[in-house]
Specification:
Strand order of the largest sheet of chain B: 6-7-8-3-9-10
Number of strands of chain A: 14
Largest interface: A-B, 30 and 27 residues
CATH class of chain B: Alpha Beta
CATH superfamily of chain B: P-loop containing nucleotide triphosphate hydrolases
Number of helices of chain B: 7
Number of domains of chain A: 2
Oligomer: heterodimer
Largest sheet of chain A: 6 strands, mixed, barrel
Structural class of chain A: alpha+beta
Distance between the termini of chain B: 19 Å
Helix content of chain A: 55-70%
Shape of chain A: elongated
Structural class of chain B: alpha/beta
CATH topology of chain B: Rossmann fold
Shape of chain B: globular
Order of helices and strands of chain B: EEEHEEHEHHHEHEHEE
Number of strands of chain B: 10
CATH architecture of chain B: 3-Layer(aba) Sandwich
Radius of gyration of chain B: 17 Å
């Protein structure tokens, strides 16, 4: 391309950008309505998807993150029976190496089993979990305290709030615990209630009894043993599974690394089923918006047909004219998308601070399934950008109509 | 084609397909126009004036025949070359003023020059000069909606001349104007014809234009009358 042609191309592009920008203000009401349609669609898509992913994240973090762990290292025979007899021997050196791994946010050993708790003539089934002192000191557990304190002595127990209510005990009360111990032994102890805990999950709150790791080993007779090591990786997104990588880097004899996705397929299935429902709603929203945008584009094309013909007659190339229309629609959809992202982000931040709480039968039904009846949103930016991308793409697909008009218009159609 | 003819039309035929069958809008027209002429294609509505003008301007193809402008046979050019040719060699003035509504007066005049890649200073200077020539000094930054019909048509004339074309084709340029505006516009075009030596070819049935034209081509039913 020679110098003058290059100059002409630059000049043409400048003209196209100027015309596109000015055309936005030509029919202000239409531009505003089209931009608003894109904004609102994006706003609702962001809210809907953020709530959906936020609820999944909440489910996973309460059930998986704080209880069973994103990744568990256990004896190869431990799952699915979770039998105390398939416990691991303590290996502090291996644990320290694991904790040094940059991909590992935390790693805590635990021992756990099932037993019966009783106070007077009241009793209840509990899952007892022995926590290491480091884990008990973590902010996650510290913030869960509903009553009492984490100050403790030997034989202290912290119960899920609902379990404590069921047994009608308060901090300072004694309880008797019985259960199956290691290799057929009978486990038995008397514990003192040191506090009650919010577990973020009603089902967990009804059955959890937390004790110190050493007390749990003594209680069960599994001295120097761990049921598993609970790992919280740095990457905790639902679609992340670092178990194989970690297993390869930190092998332990007779043990394997299992992700929560492998251990809890029902949770993944619930999320997948719900995701499909959400996607159908978003699809319907996009179809409605898509047809709305198409209507606007058809109107735009029909209004400008004579102008297109005149510009072609003047010597404007069709490609340049099409580019002008494309830039105009791109600017309009980007402006709508930017507003939608901004509004959606503000709404999500408000919902994060004041999460929606369900009530009535819906709340009861959700709690029966084991989840807390709140709708916390996800703050993941990728939701905003993904859906902005989809909506801008829909607008650009709708722009095919005026572009087609540009290529079909004859310069004599004035 | 004679040596001095700017435009040469040889045996041009244009046939349209319609639901009633083929319609011959232009039937074997041949004509020549000398450089610097102020000419008009005249005839009643539907006689083929606009069709012939569109063919001469390369806006529409011909069924048969050949057209030369300034030594270039435009009927033999590819679509891309025709667009390029139009951009540099032909100016248009349409019946409806056909300005770009989002560009102001000087930007409309500079539109073709911008497509040609001229720098902003050259464009602005030429546009202001032409707007002054058509009596629109002081209206340079007004948008078409802020101008009267006559003023808009004068902007269109300035635009047609902006790239110093060999030939300006004006299709019924006075159809939407009152007498006063028509006279003024014709004065301006004639003056520019004299001053810049630009060749003008009108298609019209307006007697005021016919009276001012120095060369007339009479069309009837698509045929040129002697």
């Amino acid at each position: 391309m020679n110098r003058s042609k290059l100059f002409a191309r630059q000049s043409e592009l400048g003209l196209a950008a100027r015309l596109a920008f000015r055309n936005l203000g030509r029919n202000r009401r239409r531009s505003l309505i089209t931009g608003a349609a894109i904004s609102f669609a994006l706003f609702f898509a962001i809210i809907l998807r953020s709530l959906q992913l936020g609820v999944y994240g909440h489910m996973v973090s309460t059930v998986v993150g704080s209880m069973s762990g994103y990744v568990q290292v256990s004896d190869t025979a431990y799952w699915p029976s979770q039998n105390l007899d398939y416990s691991l021997y303590e290996d502090q050196q291996w644990l320290e190496r694991l904790r040094q791994d940059p991909e590992v946010a935390s790693a805590y050993p635990r021992i756990q089993g099932f037993g019966l708790l009783s106070v007077g003539d009241r009793s209840g089934v509990a899952q007892w979990i022995g926590l290491s002192p480091e884990e008990a000191q973590s902010s996650l557990w510290q913030t869960r305290l509903a009553s009492g304190s984490w100050e403790s002595g030997p034989g202290s127990v912290w119960l899920g709030k609902r379990l404590a209510e069921q047994l009608q005990v308060e901090p300072g009360d004694s309880l008797v615990a019985m259960g199956q111990g290691f290799q057929g032994s009978v486990a038995g102890a008397s514990w003192v209630l040191a506090g009650t805990l919010h577990m973020g999950n009603p089902e967990l709150e009804k059955r959890s009894a937390i004790i110190e790791l050493k007390d749990a080993q003594d209680f069960s007779g599994a001295y120097g043993m761990w049921s598993y090591v609970q790992i919280t990786p740095q990457r905790r997104e639902i679609n992340q599974d670092p178990s194989a990588e970690l297993g390869a880097r930190h092998p332990l004899d007779g043990a394997h690394f299992l992700s929560w996705q492998t251990r809890m397929p029902e949770l993944i299935q619930t999320i997948q089923a719900d995701t499909t429902g959400g996607r159908v709603i978003l699809f319907i929203l996009y179809v409605v918006i898509g047809f709305g945008l198409l209507g606007t584009m058809i109107m735009l094309a029909n209004e400008r047909r004579r102008e297109f013909a005149m510009q072609l007659a003047m010597g404007m190339r069709r490609g340049l004219l099409a580019g002008t229309v494309f830039i105009e629609i791109l600017l309009l959809s980007l402006a709508g998308a930017a507003t939608g992202i901004l509004a959606g982000r503000i709404a999500v931040l408000i919902l994060e601070r004041y999460p929606l709480r369900l009530w009535g039968d819906v709340a009861a039904a959700i709690e029966q399934q084991g989840w807390e009846a709140i709708l916390p949103p996800s703050l993941d930016w990728s939701i905003s950008f993904t859906h902005a991308g989809i909506i801008v793409l829909i607008a650009l697909i709708a722009s095919a109509w005026p572009l087609r008009t540009v290529f079909k218009t004859s310069p004599v159609h004035r | 084609m004679t040596n001095q003819a700017l435009l040469s039309v040889q045996n041009v035929v244009k046939t349209y397909e319609s639901t009633a069958g083929p319609v011959q809008a232009v039937c074997g027209v041949s004509l020549e126009l000398q450089r610097g002429a102020f000419a008009a294609l005249v005839g009643p509505s539907g006689c083929g004036k606009t069709t012939l003008l569109n063919a001469i301007g390369g806006l529409d193809s011909v069924t048969s025949g050949r057209i030369w402008i300034d030594g270039t046979e435009i009927t033999g050019l590819s679509d891309r070359k025709v667009i390029e040719f139009r951009l540099h060699r032909i100016g248009f003035v349409f019946q409806a003023f056909n300005l770009v509504p989002v560009l102001n007066a000087w930007e409309n005049v500079a539109f073709v020059m911008e497509l040609q890649g001229l720098g902003i200073k050259a464009r602005r200077d030429r546009a202001y000069e032409l707007l002054s020539a058509v009596g629109l000094s002081g209206k340079e930054i007004q948008r078409p909606a802020q101008l009267s019909g006559g003023q808009q048509q004068r902007v269109a004339v300035a635009r047609a001349l902006a790239s110093r074309p060999s030939l300006v084709l004006a299709d019924e340029p006075t159809a939407n104007l009152d007498s006063k505006s028509t006279d003024k516009l014709l004065d301006i075009m004639h003056e520019l014809n004299q001053k810049e030596g630009t060749t003008f070819l009108f298609s019209t049935h307006d007697p005021r234009v016919i009276n001012r034209a120095e060369v007339l081509f009479q069309l009837e039913d698509g045929r040129l009358q002697a």
